[in-house]
Amino acid sequence: MIPSKLNELGAWQAAALLARRELRAADLVRACLDRVAERDGEVHAFAHIDPDTALAQARSLDAGPLRGPLHGLPLGVKDLFDTADLPTGYGSPIYAGYRPVADAAAVALCREAGALVLGKTVTTEFAYFHPGLTRNPHDLMHTPGGSSSGSAAAVADRMLPLALGTQTAGSIIRPAAYCGVVGYKPSWGRVPRAGVKSLSETLDTVGGFGRSVRDAALLGSVLIGDARLREEFAAGALRIGLCRTPEWPQADADTQHAWAEATAALAPHAVAMSDVVLPDDLPDLVALQKAVMAFEMSRALSHERLHHRDRLSPRLRALLDDGIAIPGAEHAAGLARTEAAKRRIDALFDQFDVLLAPSATGEAPVGLGATGDPLFCRSWTLLGLPCVHLPFARGSHGLPVGLQLVGRWGEDHRLLANAQWVHERLTR
Amino acid sequence: MIPSKLNELGAWQAAALLARRELRAADLVRACLDRVAERDGEVHAFAHIDPDTALAQARSLDAGPLRGPLHGLPLGVKDLFDTADLPTGYGSPIYAGYRPVADAAAVALCREAGALVLGKTVTTEFAYFHPGLTRNPHDLMHTPGGSSSGSAAAVADRMLPLALGTQTAGSIIRPAAYCGVVGYKPSWGRVPRAGVKSLSETLDTVGGFGRSVRDAALLGSVLIGDARLREEFAAGALRIGLCRTPEWPQADADTQHAWAEATAALAPHAVAMSDVVLPDDLPDLVALQKAVMAFEMSRALSHERLHHRDRLSPRLRALLDDGIAIPGAEHAAGLARTEAAKRRIDALFDQFDVLLAPSATGEAPVGLGATGDPLFCRSWTLLGLPCVHLPFARGSHGLPVGLQLVGRWGEDHRLLANAQWVHERLTR
Fold this sequence. Notes:
Chain A is α/β, with parallel strands linked by helices. Chain A contains 15 helices and eleven strands.
């Protein structure tokens, strides 16, 4: 049975209907566009949307052969990804109206799998902290998080089922948490970044959003090119490591409450569940991530730093100034410490199948001048580990709250199967 | 004293004269342009050169304050790097005449340090195997190697002192070997790749060429942002690991002869020198590199694969077809085996300061339809280790032959100091 509000269909369900030709992509797109028309004047999830092009793509897909696992699904593309048929602004006035000559590789892969790009979603300035116009669909006075602000908000608000994002500090997991959707940051190195505005050589990671683990995994399977993400969803009873992280004192009452709720719900089902003891000699990974990011951003954005300084936000300008002053020897030592930490943390996964960890300090903060703190994401991004945010609770202001699961590097298919298992038990 | 042929000045020497204002950048550029005019009709090192722009840049540098360690040095930029003021073709007809909106980060960093871009140098098609027009300056009937063909040839032929390249399989070390110059491939992850056409997420590495180790290190110091590469050249007596690699049977008599010559020359000076015993359970790194590269290139070049198939060379098309058919599970297992191999090889550097290894199977092969075999570079690129090619001999056809030194990941400053020490002893 097809629900009356097509825009509320999840990706997995819509894909099945589309594959059986029981649903037309054009109808799905029309429902999504109606929702955008109804809501986006307030939410501002989109930086650019072209209804005619989207509908034309949908009709073409309806008339042609099945393309692949995303056939007919409307996709939001963070405006940090190049698109050949839509302007690409990277969230910066420097690139207003810029028309790339080619699609980013991740966009091309999704199109090859049958997705149609509904529009470009708002990013913060170069995916750093200076916010775009997007508001949190659950409460317009609150930030949606960043930097993948528009993608998270559009998926949360049922404007479309799937959207692309990137994470350098916490830019997928944090907005997923604030908007109450599933966010998936793959293992580092698994998704091509060609055609994505580059910020940080060793941190930038392409991923995406859906409203369920299976939906995010469907998108992820195309991004990392691994069919196991959509075919293998059997997870045994798990050994769950509880990793509050050294930043736990900064988790507020809402996150603490979600933590208590989750651990209580999972305890009867897990084969084993215990606190993770982090190695004593582990460096301060949050500080390390900040330094690596500053050094690398100051270099990756050299053209903008040198030629468009006056069109950078003060906060970005300050970061680039800080980063360019970091001595190379210090950066090299930081990368070496990161590698050593990766090896230590990898060993934890002999003991645990997944780690449960906070996603954010709490609910989406009030105000649109900032996008919240990526504190609880920085370490996992530095370590390159795959992460999935699971929404399952509400905070004291009624806004979404959840937690993230962290998996072993390279074992994304296991993480997503495990995340599905965990999410089921948290949302019963 | 300034030599009469300014184009023959090494980067280090020219930089010192320029910094003392004893040499004008305009004069240096003019000498380089004269050499280009004299030779490039035969060598074809340049894809694009704009003498007026280069001279204008030089005059501006002469008139202004000292910019940095590359002040006034003419730089060749592989046509795989975006440049805002020169067309960028990536060696493919698809991008003929393309004008990027921004400089690649590496180009911007060199300009910030005072370099002036003399022109764009020829790359093979998307830095894969389909050759450009470049010929080997030592014998025009032989390949210069690829994919950084024009950069290596231009530096070898004294058209300029420094040039940028990239390596995904063997695209810096091989042309350096064939053209008889120093090629430096930094540790993976140290140089920003923003604005460089992306082929392979986990392999692509930005580096460069010079005619001496110190020259290459000077350029490298700016690329990786580590002043130690130009300030620390003291190397103690070394523990040298002799790593013929499992591919040694494919080294021809010229490479074998160079090996014997080098080991004999180094034996009296090294603190220790012995054959490296590779772990028994090491996977076939060459086969692994080929598979990782095929998988990743088929995805990074998705836009071209899907929209410009008929304008790809047959060999590249075949690679992309092979790569897209590799199951994601196989790729994930390959990346995991690579990580394990990295850890095993890293441990070798507790025992050795550097590894000596072949750079190429022999001299530059005759013929311009192919660019030679990156066989002896694939493993080191896969492992992400820093490499320096050292030219010091001639083969049976009188063409350059040499060997490479491989260092510990992240210790590029030590590798370059050690390479300087080794090169001195090989070229006495």
